[in-house]
Amino acid sequence: MDPFRETLPTERPAVASPVVSVLVCTYQHGPWIAECLESIKAQRTDLPFEVLVGEDGSTDDTGAVCERVVAGDPRFHVYRWPPGPRWCIEGQPTGRRNFMRLYAMARGRYVHFIDGDDGWLDPLKLQRQVDLLERDPACMGSYHRTAVKDEAGALTHPWREQLPDRMALEDVVATQAPFHPGSFLWRNTPAVRALITSEAGWKAGSGDMWFFASAATQGPLRAVEGELSFYRRHGQGLTAQGLFARTNIHRLRILQWQRLDRLTRGRWRAHLDAVCDRHLDQLAGVPMTALDKRRWLLTLGRASRYFLDRRRWTRVLHALRTAPAA
Question: How do the residues of the chain divide into helix, strand and coil, expressed in percent and rounded to 5?
Answer without folding.
Answer: 40, 20, 40
